[in-house]
Design a protein that fits this description.
Elements lengths: L1 H6 L1 E2 L13 H16 L13 E5 L6 H11 L3 E5 L1 H4 L6 H15 L3 E6 L14 H19 L6 E7 L7 H6 L2 E4 L5 H6 L2
Parallel strand pairs: 2-5, 2-6, 3-4, 4-5
Antiparallel strand pairs: 1-3
Helix pairs in contact: 5-6
Length: 195
């Protein structure tokens, strides 16, 4: 628990929508998918319940991490910024413990946004050549993610994942990311903002 708190917990990322230039269509979709249900949870129930897993995919360097931080700020949620290096270990069984501790801490600090950057590095397609520890880490992620979906509605935990190689993701993980949002290259207006 302590290693997760030290390496990936960010209680206030302090990034707002205006800090992310361009991506107007993506921001609109994210506001409708995530922000509005947090503001009016009484309306978004049953079939209208918000997605617990969202995949942001597209070319590298387009602001996927910045958007994840903006979502956490706008939802006033605890932000967990994860990567493959923080969720894996050389010790046998330690990766699964880290994954379980991550979801337990997110549950304790809900509302929370768990952001897994480059998810394809830990959730690649399963096959005969992969190591047993990798397979067990994937299984633990899927089990914990299913626990998020079955948790009480008032415990708002969102799993955001980013990748630039969605075709390499494991099918089971891809099925759990019910909302997939493409992040296009910046348009002319967004490029002018950087000049």
């Amino acid at each position: 628990m302590k290693s997760i708190e030290e390496t990936i917990l960010d209680s206030s990322p302090n990034v707002h929508w205006d800090d992310v230039k361009g991506l107007a269509d993506v921001k609109t979709v994210l506001k409708e998918t995530i922000i509005m249900p947090t503001m009016r949870p009484d309306i978004f129930r049953g079939l209208l319940a918000p997605s617990k897993g969202i995949l942001l995919y597209g070319p590298p360097g387009n602001g996927k991490t910045m958007l994840a931080k903006a979502i956490a700020t706008e939802c006033q949620s605890t932000f967990f910024n994860c990567s493959a290096s923080t969720l894996t270990s050389k010790w046998m069984g330690e990766g699964e413990k880290l994954m379980k501790a991550l979801f337990a801490m997110a549950n304790a600090k809900a509302p929370a946004v768990i952001f897994i950057d480059e998810i394809d590095s830990i959730m690649g397609a399963r096959g005969g050549q992969e190591h047993e520890a990798s397979r067990r880490l994937k299984t633990e992620f899927l089990v914990q993610f299913d626990g998020v979906n079955s948790a009480q509605e008032e415990k708002r935990i969102l799993v955001l994942a980013a990748t630039n190689r969605p075709q390499d993701l494991d099918e089971a993980a891809l099925r759990r990311m019910t909302r997939r949002i493409y992040m296009p290259l910046p348009d002319g207006e967004a490029r002018k903002a950087f000049i």
